[in-house]
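Deliverable D5.2: sample structural annotation.
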Amino acid sequence: MTDTNRPGAGVVWARVEEGFHVGSRNGVFLGYLDREADGSYLAYDGRSRLVGRFPTLVAGMAAVTSATVETRPAAPRDEEIVLRQVRTDRELPGSMVR
């Protein structure tokens, strides 16, 4: 049986490109890691705030996962973002739409 209450449960890490990894849990963005020239990793949370510098990828992943658990409130499951296009009949200065 898997313990779903531990910090790393359900976290998926994807290597976007060499040295750049993105983490998510249940489709929610947790943060990312960026490898520096010296081989260390800068870890950032889901709001692009620096979590810290870490000597290994695994240490950085653990820090992002832990920072997310401690600092982010749980999002409601039914939360969604709706994007709507707004149109106006008036011409705006510099607008190409007529």
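Annotation notes: The radius of gyration is 19 Å. The chain has one domain: 1-98.
The annotation will be released with the project's public dataset once the embargo ends.
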